[in-house]
Design brief:
Distance between the termini: 32 Å
Strand content: 15-25%
Radius of gyration: 20 Å
Shape: globular
Bound molecules: guanosine-5'-triphosphate, magnesium ion
Helix content: 25-40%
Number of helices: 9
Strand order of the largest sheet: 2-3-1-4-5-6
Length: 304
């Protein structure tokens, strides 16, 4: 984790927005969680795990770093993916520092327009070559020279977000780069998302982990009830799928598959909220929700 010592003795305060972008699955969310020290973003080995722009706020006595985790850059094939890419676009608009994350062995960004934006931006770019724990010195050197020629405006850092290698050094560089400014958010705030968002995401993570092919990409989760008393939080969430056949798959034989999602989600949520959790889950068909602009708005996929 990062070392949050005071910046100086002059009462100067720094604050800024640091937006993390890159291809799917390179480790953007892992990095954000490593900075924040909390599991704000879900992480799986599948591409397109993150669908929203999620803020993670790191507060120190004399600084506030507002990180944004964003969806991996893809060519959108349906409306949900277009909205996901709109979140990435907004990440260019308000950044004080851009983190462009690639993983070891990667060659270039699939989307040329985004790539051009990165190489021509006036915003300081930190290019992080992630997953170096999987690499060796020769490959790393080759990658360092490849990326310094591809993105000459970037400062390059080899990192391992998973093993926390060089994460603190990158954070210290961020503190140097962000401007003098009062904080943007209250100093005890960790994120911009409400509690229900983390319930939805935890459930979606279990679905990404346990179901194959198109199923996780056809699922949206909505938490309809979130009621907290002194000892327990009671939640009811609906798992939405696009078609009737998918509903059967989610539930599984005698409900065992859905039960597993429920048990694993509850355990994670108890850790996240630090309280006993009662979670009720059910499945509903919401035909073609991911191509329906109004439905997408309802689920928070409108960028503005
Ligand atoms: N070996 C290794 N694996 C890593 C590292 N960082 C992340 N991973 C793994 O890479 C996979 C993807 O990580 P995420 O953090 O979900 O990646 P992402 O870029 O947020 O992915 P999307 O949200 O789908 O765009 C997971 O299986 C992580 O455990 C790393 O430093 N080393
Ligand atoms: Mg992610």
């Amino acid at each position: 984790m990062c070392n949050f010592g005071p910046l100086n003795t002059l009462n100067m305060h720094k604050a800024g927005f640091v937006n993390i972008i890159g291809n799917p699955n390179v480790g953007k969310s892992t990095l954000m969680n490593a900075f924040v020290g909390e599991k704000l973003s879900i992480i799986t080995s599948k591409a397109q795990t993150t669908r929203h722009r999620i803020l993670g706020i790191v507060n120190g006595e004399d600084f506030q770093v507002v990180l944004s985790d964003t969806p991996g850059i893809i060519k959108p094939a349906y409306e949900l993916q277009s909205s996901m890419m709109d979140f990435v676009k907004t990440a260019f608009e308000d950044a004080d520092v851009l983190i462009y994350m690639v993983e070891i062995g990667e060659r270039s960004l699939k989307d040329e327009a985004f790539f051009k934006k990165i190489t021509s931006t006036k915003i300081p770019v930190l290019l992080l070559i992630n997953k170096i724990d999987k690499s060796n010195q020769d490959t790393l050197e080759e990658q360092m020279s490849l990326w310094s020629s591809q993105v000459p405006n970037a400062e390059i850092y080899p990192v391992s977000a998973l093993e926390n290698f060089n994460v603190e050094e990158v954070f210290n560089r961020i503190i140097e780069l962000i401007p003098e400014s009062p904080p943007f958010y209250p100093k005890d705030q960790l994120t911009d998302k409400p509690e229900r968002f983390f319930v939805n995401e935890t459930i979606r993570e279990k679905i990404l982990l346990h179901y194959k092919k198109e199923i996780p990409y056809s699922v949206e989760v909505e938490t309809e009830e979130f009621f907290e008393d002194e000892t327990i939080i009671r939640m009811r969430s609906v798992i939405m799928v696009e078609r009737e056949t998918q509903k059967g798959i989610i539930i599984g034989h005698k409900g065992t598959a859905l039960k597993r999602v429920g048990v694993e989600s509850r355990k994670d949520l108890e850790v996240f909220f630090g309280k006993q959790v009662h979670l009720e889950l059910y499945v509903k068909v919401n035909k073609n929700w991911r191509s329906n602009v109004n439905q997408l708005k309802r689920f928070g996929y409108n960028k503005k």
